[in-house]
Amino acid sequence: MDFEKMRKILEKDPDEAVTEVLSGVEERYGEIPYILEFMRDMPEFLIPKVMYDNSIMREFDRLDPKTLELICIGVSSALRCEHCMKMHIRIGRRLGLSKEELFDAILIGGAMSNASVLADGTRALNAEINNDGEQVCDEGCDSCNITSYNNDK
Prior knowledge:
By secondary structure, the protein is mostly helical. It has a single domain (3-152), classed as AhpD-like, CATH 1.20.1290.10. The protein is built from 8 helices and no strands.
């Protein structure tokens, strides 16, 4: 969103600005997302959020709308946000995306989520246990040496 457009919105009465911004969102998506509807009476939060989101996702031409929606579906899938995923699936359908394309985005999101869990888990495991299966901490560590700790009581 360019600065001039932002300035014009910010100069409006808050209720008028909210109405204009939400109308633009509804025109773009075909609906008003729950979060924005929830924030309707909070223009000090709603207006900056929509401006920020638009600056990132709607105001540049490097990615087309279908690709953006597929990304949103994959990310909401990875984050396990059912509400966002359903909304972006509806938007994707309105844009003409097939069920198979939508499913591919969900599969990619699932793979990324799985990779994230494995990356965190294996790093934690390696940080605590070396390649020989030994604890990494000092021998006197009460957290790692639980058997010794319990026998001392």
